[in-house]
Amino acid sequence: MTGLNTILIVVGLFLAGGVYSFAKQGMPKGVIVLLSLGSVMCLLAGILRIQGLWD
After folding, report:
1. Of 48, 30, 50, which Cα lies nearest the Cα of 40?
2. Which residues lie below 8 Å from residue 36, measured CB to CB, with a gap of 6+?
3. Which pLDDT score is estimated for 4?
4. Closest-CA residue to 37 (of 55, 19, 10)
5. Rounded to an integer, what distance in angstroms lies between the CA atom of residue 30 and that of residue 53?
6. Which of 15, 17, 20, 50 is deepest in the core (most CB within 10 A)?
7. What is the DSSP-derived secondary structure letter of residue 1?
8. Is the sign of the CA dihedral 23, 27, 28, 33 positive or negative?
């Protein structure tokens, strides 16, 4: 399932870019925190799936 790994990592990076953009624009902290948590979860899930630690 390398396609799902790639999608998870790309979505995580996309959300990380959103965090940077929202922080730069001065958006509310709650939105930035939720977006950063989503980004971290997507990136970790993609990396753990690549390593074979999570099926």
Report:
1. 48
2. 15, 16, 19
3. 87
4. 19
5. 31
6. 15
7. -
8. negative
Which structure tokens are listed for 22? 């929202």
Token pair in block for residue 28: 């509310």
DSSP string, 11-55: HHHHHHHHHHHHHHHT--HHHHHHHHHHHHHHHHHHHHHHHTS--
Q: Are 14 and 36 in contact (CB under 8 A)?
A: no
Q: What is the pTM of this model?
A: 0.80
Amino acid at 15: L
pLDDT mean values, one per 10 residues, the chain (55 residues): 85 92 92 94 90 76
Between CA 13 and CA 46 the distance in angstroms is 11
Please calculate the CA angle 20-40-13 and round it to the nearest 5 degrees.
55
